[in-house]
Amino acid sequence: MAEVPTRPKAQLYDAFAVSGKALASGKRLELLELLAQGERTVDALAKAAGLNLTTASAHLQTLKQAGFVAIRREGVRVHYRLAGDDVALLFALLRKVAENHQAAVPAARDAYLGDDGTTEVTREELSARLRAGDVVVLDVRPVEEYLAGHIPGAVGIPVGELADRINELPEDCEIIVYCRGEYCVLAYDAVRLLAGRGRRAIRLSDGMLEWRLAGFPVAA
Amino acid sequence: MAEVPTRPKAQLYDAFAVSGKALASGKRLELLELLAQGERTVDALAKAAGLNLTTASAHLQTLKQAGFVAIRREGVRVHYRLAGDDVALLFALLRKVAENHQAAVPAARDAYLGDDGTTEVTREELSARLRAGDVVVLDVRPVEEYLAGHIPGAVGIPVGELADRINELPEDCEIIVYCRGEYCVLAYDAVRLLAGRGRRAIRLSDGMLEWRLAGFPVAA
DNA sequence: GGCATCCTCCATAAATCCATGGAATATTGT
DNA sequence: ACAATATTCCATGGATTTATGGAGGATGCC
Q1: In what residue span(s) does the HTH arsR-type domain sit (chains A, B) (predicted)?
Q2: What φ, ψ does residue B82 adopt, rounded to 5°?
């Protein structure tokens, strides 16, 4: 048999594992979801993920080692972004596989998102109804994420401002709400808020991440 | 802003991270590649991966926690298998993304496989030439992997036995060799051996893993 | 029942990872 | 040159992971 070169094999697989390790922390996965929405500075990422600045920086170094992120220096600040859509795809697939095979995920998902029976629409339905013009599409992510790229024709109002700015939305129109992706709360919260104010609001079944990966058009 | 429920969010992402952790060790990735070829007992996996039995068992428990593998008991032994093709897809995508974005991977890959200029053929070419009948397709994986599923019409001779059984291959025919997947050495070694004996041998550009994931037919 | 086999669980030591505070570095503005 | 800001680097303690032996459980064979 021989199988002499066990060292190079381990080296190759350990290199793969470096990328695996990048996916091995919940905080890093939260950072990846944020980065999938567009580039951000370390400081912004740390705040958005609820992390200590140095902790966030360390996690970003881990992601960088795996080649998952790239940086752009602009004066004194460093903007991180995903290194490619294949990284976003890997991230999305990991979550899907985890949901498919890990019993704890659906439970945690419902506990986080609130398993209300809110209606969902698919990307295709949204596109069709947007063309037909009988709905408003509402993006409830933070402004910078909306600005970095959103569904063409969507109105952008962050959830936090939605209660105050609800009058910007037409009264008689059904509202389709979306946010970052399949496991993002923002749209859930927004739909609950809108429904509480007597609006007809439904959710896109996932969000910007899946929309972009599916090759649908993005406006910036 | 509020963002009260930070606990459930962390819980959800930590659950995703459990699946991420399953990909965070080179040895576990080696086990995944083996499992992608078909089910195996703990003992067989440990031997094939060069691991202590208890270590292998522990790694398999980690994979099981992530839901990546399922088991089947048969008398005194336990057979592990991948829980679904989505797991194999995730595994394959991880390796691809690592190769795309991590500089160390191509280097480690060449060091392991030997970057000889051997010719490759695609799955489609292989299919066409197999139909045309002007080639022999050779599977050089261990017998149990060949038996668990192989390219229809392929001859199965493990690399270790190839030198002794080379006369089972027709002389005048080009030989297309394949093994487990894109990063598996077996086909590289086999092609070098065959070429050294004056045979015309080329490699399938990847292997069984990618063949199956692409939806090509598998014989068992 | 008694025994062998295969696997999992437990305990342990070494290595690694995580979060965090403080120091060091780099860039910009004065 | 100096100060201010944004980020990375470094050191530390606590938690987690890894490899490994040995004990324990389950199953099948005699």
Answers
A1: 8-102
A2: -65, 145
Asked if B199 and B108 touch (Cβ cutoff 8 Å), the reply is: no
Q: Which nucleotide is nearest, taking the CA of residue B51 and each C1'?
A: D19
Name the residues of B annotated as catalytic.
Answer: 179
The helix or strand, by DSSP H or E, that contains position A155, with its residue range, turns out to be: strand A155-156
Total Cβ atoms within 10 A of residue B170: 12
CATH class given for the domain over A114-213: alpha beta
Q: Quote the radius of gyration of chain A (alpha carbons, Å).
A: 20
Within 8 A of A83 by CB-CB distance, chain B residues are: 101
CB B32 within 8 A of CB B92: no
Q: In what order do the strands lie in the sheet with A120-121?
A: A120-121, A201-207, A174-179, A135-139, A155-156
B98:A14 CB<8 A: no
The architecture CATH gives domain B110-213: 3-Layer(aba) Sandwich (3.40)
Q: How many Cβ atoms sit within 10 Å of the Cβ of residue B148?
A: 17
Name the nearest CA neighbour of B121 among B129, B112, B113.
B129
Residue located via tokens 């105050």: A164
Query: Which CATH topology does B6-89 take?
Result: Arc Repressor Mutant, subunit A (1.10.10)
The answer to whether residues B151 and B113 touch, using CB atoms and an 8 Å cutoff, is no
Structure-token pair, residue A54: 């140095």
> Of A99, A100, A45, nearest to A71 (Cα)?
A45
Q: Is the CB of B61 under 7 A from strand D?
A: no
The residues that bridge with B74 in the sheet, in sequence order, are B77
The DSSP secondary-structure symbol of A150 reads B
8 A C-beta contact, residue A182 and residue A205: yes
The per-residue pLDDT string of chain B (220 residues; one tens digit each, 9 = 90 and over) reads 333 456 899 999 999 999 999 999 999 999 999 999 999 999 999 999 999 999 999 999 999 999 999 999 998 999 999 999 999 999 999 999 999 999 999 999 999 998 666 789 999 999 999 988 889 999 999 999 999 999 999 999 999 999 999 999 998 889 999 999 999 999 999 999 999 999 999 999 999 999 999 999 999 8
CA B121 remoteness from chain centre: 18
Domain parsing of chain A, residue ranges? 6-89, 114-213
